[in-house]
Amino acid sequence: MNLDFSATIPQIPFILEGLAITLKIVIVSAIIGLILGIVLSLCKISTFRPLIWIADFYTSVFRGTPLVLQLMIVYFGLPQLLGFQIDQFWAAVVALSLNSAAYVSEIIRAGINAIDKGQKEAAVALGVPYGKMMKDLLLPQAFKNISPAIVNELITLTKESAIVTVIGLGDVMRRAYQAGAATYNYLEPLIIAGLIYYVLVLILTFIGKAVERKLKSND
Fold this sequence. Notes:
Largest sheet: none
Number of helices: 8
Structural class: mainly alpha
Number of domains: 1
Oligomer: single chain
CATH superfamily: MetI-like
CATH class: Mainly Alpha
CATH topology: MetI-like fold
Distance between the termini: 53 Å
Number of strands: 0
Helix content: over 70%
Strand content: under 5%
């Protein structure tokens, strides 16, 4: 094996320029995925069966099909129905957030169901409105319990964001591939890209553990 980073080092700034796109995709997708995940989780624990069926079917579809397929349907398939091309960035955000929401909804649902049922029954007996009970009582406790799982999902989302290279979006992975094509040495730029993703995961892991310690200290 012969590794030669001499041609790759000048390409590092070019690869790092894709970091801004990667972070933007992850942040926007995580926010939308979290919001949609909360909505889906509330549907899953509702007493209205059609909502439960819809939420469960949604989760089954997005967890049961490859993310790359979902991304390609959004970017290449939907324009055929809509009659206009979707921007690469927003196609990536739509696919990643819809996929993430399916997993987040299961995490939140499990967190809510883990809360002592007596608290919910007491709130109902006191006449607390459902929305207020969720906002002030159940969801805050659920998020405290599921924070490690949410961080893990964010880490997964960060790594999966590399898949946007298949639609030509200039993220870290795409730029690493372009750097390899320019020098005819693909391994070295891909190693650089791997290190960038690894550092991102380490940072998220550190933040997640810090948040978990903070929440435990507040108990």
